[in-house]
Design goal:
Length: 1011
């Protein structure tokens, strides 16, 4: 044995020169030398040459030359930053030449896709996954981050369901819905742990992947039956230090709410509604004239509550500071952000407080990666969020309910003596609610922490590593504020009458509310290795234990064992397996665990010889997967209440049955209904996915497409038990449903001198059908949901409707039609219905089950990113098709169901052109029944985001000691194209009615500076 020195020169800004010593065998030592070039013959610099043996010997000379000691049979590995490694087996000849070709270019960060606890290149991956970096997301100041994702991922539907600051609701669906039970949302996983990410700042997130097929989803066992959204937070990169600062300010604009009536129109329409049901008018001509001429605002008030108390705009702002970087050994990423969104209300300031709704949020994240040794690495991922919600004592929903539903002539807001107006019927005064009910404030704090350790075990076998991952999440809230109350006085009567009990300003009870603690532990092994350059193995084995604890409920516990193995041959043929053994305490002992396997395969067909010469094709991969997935569906009783541990039978004490000969009940123990069902189990889902990925036009155009089918069995249904049993059963596994469809995504990008543009588009078609469902005995065939699709019509909450045939135009038409029994009174101007069962009577047996649903069967998105020199513009659109909404709640919104739309109701004068039935203050059940008369298309195309920017030139930025600086303007929800009127939003048709916040658009101006 002899000693010698070998030198490692790693250029390209990675590390400085390092020297090391190792031992080599004397016998047979050769010095292998040669030149490393590219395909054009130019010398390649910064090449690392490694001997894969017991030791490591490296040397690098100038102009791509190398000299390295080794023995015949050694494997020499040539590594260069940005390229795949090239392997050569050393022979007897000491001369060797190596060429790095264009095909050897290594996958960039964008070529990697996040999967559970790992990454794979797109070439290696057989899964159906939609993924994207968040770098191109606009940094708009909106409180719900998930809204920015709408229209960007194939297979993922995002629907906004509310607009109130800090409480916007967003719904998710992956490839539609194939279960008719409640729930059905995909699981959200942040850094591999089930967490919400809607309130995170956009700078915290590095990438988002949507997992869609069994091979990807089965890692999470029972918890990802409806798809999964995998969110990875940002990490620092070695030798890429930076500091960025973002400042954004703008406003939100309210729109799309049904306009109220003035007092004159309200009184006229109210009289009309009474006359239509044969009653005397409530307002005489003198009162109508007084409302019209505003002669006495105290006895005949004319209030426009929305105009007075609800503003058109509200300010919004966001600030963010981020820094990251580090060395090869220690990397860090930190971000701090502040978000503030004000409410729309006016006249909220008093001497004691400002009661306007507002939402403030503080986000902090620090991610640290530390290589303790060459074999041990640690990671700390910590996110902290603190939210402040400020509201009025009567809450925003309560005040909006008054503003939308209080008649404009109910009372003067302030009487002559400045007291609050009110009556015995209408005791909520909007000014009193805003200024004299105190405040209700909630502070919510969220902590998400994850610790990970990875120990390489190459001492046992190369590529083996042990992993441990621990997460702790804590959530708690604290409420406080002021209490106060006011009196209202009706001075329109003699003597005046006072209602409500006033109360002086006082501190509201302050205390801690919900406190939740969640933790998970993952333990396992990874094995990643390449053999002889052609055989690549990536395998993982994990065991997981989870728990969620709160003071007001039984703890949730879960356990999971999972394995994943992927094999690639020649970087062209790939096969994989994912299997999990997953359980839940929600099922009876002995029936809690199930095994969920999935297999996948892929073939890079473009690497085959018969396609090598195809100039039009750069890349083509065919892939497929099949597996059985489980879904931990929630159980609900007949009243819609969630049932915890549905396998248990519970007993209570109370007055029981009559026992013996006396006619009196006896205190006894009896079984609570519904009783438990120990046979309940999870939904079983068989998923098949066949897909293809390809690149064309010199990789300028990338396409990905998938065809999928899915069948679910053992869907939980209500148990239709005979009433004689005296007790119901919580649920039974009886239902079946199927879904099928396809999704695709495309990206086209082009550079032409100073002009660069990128176009993206995605399209999803997902159709579903109920195959079997437990139904009450005697259900008519045409009222059964079987063989129809899943979902209910938006706002109506049902799929069963009467078939309308226009409006009755005369009493003769009513007399000659089937008897209408849906209302005690049917007159001209009412809806006419079809006699479906032919019994000459319109009753509940004439309602039919339909395919109208609020779940679109088609959703799509497209967008662009264009940059020319220092200017850039980006836009993203989202659209849906096949969605239906019920506009009846909108038409009948407002006081006594009257609003501006009521002017389009049927009268004798406009009988031929009326849009809606006649107005009826009472006895209007015929027109308010669920019927297809009120159904409208909920299809839409929306401009979700728009951003226009200008960047300083590199020269100017450097002169100002900055890396870059960009100024921009942007907006969110700026344009909607639909078949509905301007007062109704097809996505959130209940916005601006009832107690719901109006539809909001966002406009912003910002600057982003990087140092």
């Amino acid at each position: 044995m002899t000693k010698y020195k070998r030198y490692l020169i790693l250029l390209s800004g990675l590390l400085s020169l390092a020297a090391m010593e190792t031992k080599a065998q004397t016998a047979g030592d050769n010095t292998y030398s040669g030149r490393v070039t590219n395909a054009k013959g130019n010398s390649m610099q910064s090449v690392l040459v490694t001997v894969k043996r017991t030791g490591v010997a490296t040397s690098s000379g100038k102009n791509g030359e190398f000299a390295i000691a080794g023995t015949p049979g050694d494997t020499l590995v040539f590594t260069r930053n940005g390229f795949r490694s090239i392997w050569r087996v050393a022979g007897k000849s000491s001369a060797m030449s190596v060429i790095f070709a264009e095909s050897d270019v290594m996958d960039t960060e964008e070529d990697y896709v996040g999967i559970p606890f790992g990454k794979r290149t797109k070439r290696e991956l057989n899964y159906a996954v939609s993924s994207a970096s968040t770098d191109d997301l606009p940094k708009l100041p909106i409180s719900n981050l998930t809204s920015l994702l709408a229209g960007r991922y194939s297979g993922l539907l995002i629907q906004l369901t509310g607009h109130q600051p800090g409480t916007e609701n967003v719904g998710f669906q992956v490839r539609g819905k194939s279960s008719y039970t409640q729930g059905g949302d995909p699981v959200i996983l942040v850094d591999g742990v089930e967490r919400d990410f809607s309130d995170m700042d956009v700078t915290e997130i590095e990438s988002i992947s949507v997992l869609k097929d069994a091979a990807a989803l089965n890692w999470y066992g029972l918890n990802a039956g409806n798809g999964a959204i995998l969110v990875n937070t940002r990490h620092g990169k070695p030798n890429q230090n930076f500091i960025t600062f973002d400042v954004l300010a703008g406003f939100q604009s309210a729109s799309k709410y049904v306009k109220p009536l003035n007092s004159y129109d309200f009184a006229n329409l109210y009289n009309q509604g009474l006359s239509n049901v044969g009653q005397s008018p409530a307002y005489n001509q003198a009162a109508l004239d007084a409302y019209k001429n505003h002669t006495d605002p105290y006895l005949f008030p004319d209030n426009n509550y929305l105009e007075r108390f609800l503003g058109k705009t509200a300010p919004v702002q966001r600030y963010n500071l981020s820094l990251g970087g580090g060395s090869e050994r220690v990397r860090y990423y930190t971000t701090i952000s502040y978000y503030n969104q004000e409410g729309l209300f006016k006249e909220t300031k008093t001497d004691d407080y400002n009661a306007n709704f507002s939402y403030k949020r503080y986000n902090f994240r620090v991610n640290l990666d530390y290589d303790v040794t060459k074999t041990l690495s640690l990671s700390l991922l910590a996110g902290l969020r603190s939210e402040r919600r400020y509201d009025m004592g009567d809450r925003t929903s309560g005040v909006l309910n008054t503003l939308y539903n209080l008649p404009p002539n109910a009372f003067p807001i302030l009487n002559k003596d400045s007291s609050y107006g009110g009556t015995s019927v209408y005791q909520n005064n909007p000014l009193g609610q805003i200024q004299s009910t105190g405040t209700y404030n909630v502070i919510a704090n969220v902590l998400n922490v994850s610790l990970a350790a990875k120990q390489k075990l190459d001492i046992f076998t190369e590529g083996l590593s042990a992993n441990i991952f621990f997460s702790y999440d804590g959530y708690g809230n604290y409420s406080h504020g002021f209490t106060m109350n006011y009196a209202v006085v009706n001075q329109a009567v003699t003597p005046s009458q006072t209602y409500r009990t006033p109360a002086v300003l006082a501190y509201r009870y302050a205390g801690f509310g919900t406190s939740t603690k969640n933790n998970e532990v993952w333990l396992g092994l990874d094995y990643d290795r390449v053999f002889a350059q052609k055989h690549k193995i990536n395998a993982s084995v994990r065991a997981q234990q989870s728990m969620s604890a709160a003071v007001d409920r039984i703890d949730y516990r879960g356990r999971l064992f999972v394995a994943r193995a992927d094999y690639g041959f020649n970087d062209r043929y790939f096969v994989g397996f994912t299997g999990s053994y997953s359980g839940s305490e929600n099922y009876a002992p002995g029936r809690r665990f199930g095994f969920f396997p999935a297999v996948s395969a892929g073939w890079v067909i473009s690497d085959e010889g018969f396609l090598k010469g195809a100039k039009w094709l750069n890349y083509l991969k065919l892939r497929g997967s099949y597996g059985r997935t489980g879904n931990l569906a929630p159980t609900y009783d007949a009243n819609g209440n969630w049932v915890r541990l549905p396998y248990r039978a519970l007993f209570t004490r109370g007055a029981g049955p009559i026992l013996g000969s006396s006619f009196s009940s006896t205190t006894t123990a009896y079984e609570v209904s519904p009783t438990g069902n120990p046979l309940t189990t999870w939904e079983k889902i068989d998923r098949l996915n066949i897909g293809a990925d390809l690149s064309l036009l010199k990789n300028e155009l990338s396409l990905s497409a998938d065809v999928f089918t899915e069948k679910r069995i053992d869907i939980l249904n209500s148990a239709n038990m005979p009433g004689i049993l005296g007790v119901g059963v919580s649920a039974v596994n009886y239902g079946q449903a199927s879904s099928k469809g396809f999704d695709m995504g495309a990206v086209y990008q082009k550079h032409i001198k100073d002009f660069h543009f990128l176009l993206n588009a995605n399209f999803t078609y997902a159709a579903n059908k109920i195959l079997r469902q437990s139904l009450p005995s005697g259900t008519l065939a045409y009222q059964s949901p079987v063989d129809h699709n899943i979902g209910n019509v938006a706002l109506s909450g049902t799929k069963r409707f009467y078939v309308s045939q226009g409006l009755f135009q005369s009493q003769d038409e009513i007399n000659n039609s089937p008897k209408q029994t849906l209302s005690g009174l049917v007159v001209p101007g009412d809806i006419k219905y079809k006699d479906v069962n032919g019994d000459n009577i319109i009753d509940s047996r004439d309602a039919v089950n339909t395919d109208y649903t609020d779940i679109p069967n088609v959703y799509y998105g497209f967008g662009l990113n264009v940059r020319y020199k220092l200017f850039d513009i980006s836009a993203q659109f989202q659209g849906v098709h096949g969605r239906t909404i019920d506009i009846k709640p909108v038409v009948y919104a407002g006081p006594n169901g009257l609003n501006q739309l009521s002017k389009e109701a049927w009268t004798i004068e406009n009988a031929a052109t009326a849009s809606y039935p006649r107005i009826g203050i009472t006895d209007n059940g015929n027109n308010t029944a669920n019927s297809d008369f009120w159904l409208r298309s909920g299809d839409f195309l929306k401009l979700r985001t728009l951003e226009v920017g200008f960047s300083l030139s590199e020269k100017t930025a450097n002169r100002l000691r900055m890396q870059s600086a960009r100024f921009f303007v942007g907006g969110f929800n700026l344009l909607t194209i639909s078949k509905l009127g301007s007062g109704i939003d097809p996505e959130t048709p209940d916005a601006g009615i009832g107690s719901n916040y109006p539809y909001m658009k966002t406009y912003t101006l910002g600057i982003s500076v990087k140092f």
